[in-house]
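> tool_call: predict_assembly(chains=two)
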Amino acid sequence: MAVDLATLSALSGRPVAAFALLDTARGLASSGGDPQLYVDLLSSFVTTHAADVSAIDQHLQSKDLAALGKLAHSIRGTSSLLGIDTVASHASHLEQAIKSQAPPEQIGAAATLLRNGLSAHLRTWTTAS
Amino acid sequence: MTRPLVFIVDDNTITRRSIAAILGNDFESLHAESGEDCLALLQRSAPDLILLDIEMNGIDGFETCRRLRQQTDAPVIFVSSHDTLEERILGFDCGGDDFIVKPYDPIVLARKASRLIERQLALRQLDAAKTSLEQRAELYARDISDTGLLLQFMRESIACRDYDVLAQRLLAATVAYGVNCHVQLRFPEGPLTLTSQGAASPLEASILERSLAMGRIFRFSRRLVINYDQISLLVLDLPQDADAALNIQHNLCVLAESAEAIAETIAIRKESASRAEALQIGSFGTSTAITELRALYRQQQVDARITLDRLIDAVEKTYVYLGLSTPQEDTLSQTLRDGAEVVLRQLDRSTEMEARFQQLLDSMQDRPSSASSEVWL
């Protein structure tokens, strides 16, 4: 996909830095090679998962592992599709930890990593304009 | 050509839009957020492919697929993050055709979708070809059966000598074609009208007679009139289906035309029989006349001989008063006898005449007997 970050930046109205950590080739492929659709889907990701940072906290507090696992599964699906690799990787680790019934502190650590990674991505995307 | 229709079933908007973008403009897509939405969509549209997520709110992808299979044979590809062997096997057991794991490779997704749609369209073409062949086979079978009915009618009726019997067989053939029909035969002795319920009422007969003015074929609603010179058919209940009605019309036309030809043959037989009868009566009168003529001729010969003898006697009796010499009397008598002899000789060609009379009578008796004339009837 010969679409450079400057084009994506221009289309999205976000700084180039917002795309620095993304696998844009992967994200563009998932968007049928359409850069405009890709930036639309990235916006859609922010909207869809905006409330998930606090949701992770709540599920951790209430120790609702099923809900936490489902949330991680959902975040992994879309983030990996759009090339948001850091978030996808954290979500995948949390999902695995829950599925393999890892010790609570390990699950807690994985959840915190996902929470922080997602939060960082949302912040980068929303505050950079 | 219309684009293939793909159902994209996923509770995540991003995934749905991503899949639609990957499939591109060659496909038309309809989106559903849940299994229930997908099943509702199926009531309105017929998809060529269904891309189905597994983990959704409401019924999951496996249950959705089971229910889809009761209504459609469109291929189903599960698109899911669930990628254990058990889940894949369950996917196939529920009627799925393929499995793609999220995050999917866009190129693989597009290829799998295209191949399954091509396969589905090819299957549908095969199915349509099979249906078309079956319909054609059914048509041929029906055609053979229709032709069989016509042949049966012809075989039974070709030697028919009677209008009543012909009318009965014609009616039976129309019943075999599955229609309620009135049949009318017109011949010199008067029209004969039959219905499947027996002899026609005067009203039914008059309807057929009036329909003669409507031309060879006349249709109104489910009724059909077919007119030939001597045959008319009135069908009361043509099939609702246009093709079936046309088929019946064609078959009955051929039937009526055949019956018309047989009716003409019956007319020729009847005329031929009546001529032979007249000829027999005529030839009997002729031989009677010839026999009488022969008797008359014989009588005439006898009468002439007697008359001439009396004439000669009467002349000879007058000799007493005429005072002729004996040689004169002898000469006169001889002259008279010679003259009478010539007349009698001329009349006396009886042998020859008898032979001629006998020849005439013999030739009259050689005429075709009533038994041999049957051959021509």
